[in-house]
Amino acid sequence: MIAANVVYPSKKGIVVYIPIVILAGVVAFNIINGDYWGSIFCAVIVLIILAPMILNTNYTIKGDGSLRVRCGFLINILIDINSIRKIQTTKSVLSSPALSMDRLEVFYNKYDSVMISPQNKEDFVAQLQNINPAIEYINKTR
Prior knowledge:
single chain; alpha+beta; PH-domain like; four-stranded mixed sheet; 8 strands; about 30% strand; elongated
């Protein structure tokens, strides 16, 4: 067990910035065409959804032996670290609480999994294996 909570922020890849660039382009196009209020309204709505995800996606290894996966105000998953069976690297494009395509898939319980993208993957996995040595780590990138 660890004494205190350890927070790993999500790695941020190009995937995060694509919607922002598209939004900026649409807003600029609409402003050029004179639709100020519509473009501002659209930008505010999209930013209300995206900002919490970009600013608040993290993975916390808690002192009580659990892993909390947070992504904005939509996703808040609590996983018992002793239920984690396997962790493997993946480049899957499936939707997940990860801000990068450089991901880890965490398999827990019998059939559950979640894809995450901690900034320091090796340290993250080592911390989990320190708590649960039975976790199998498969690094497909090597």
